[in-house]
Amino acid sequence: MSQDDDYSLLREKRERRIKTIAWIVIVALILVAGGATVFALLFG
Question: What are the entry keywords (predicted)?
Answer without folding.
Answer: Membrane, Transmembrane, Transmembrane helix
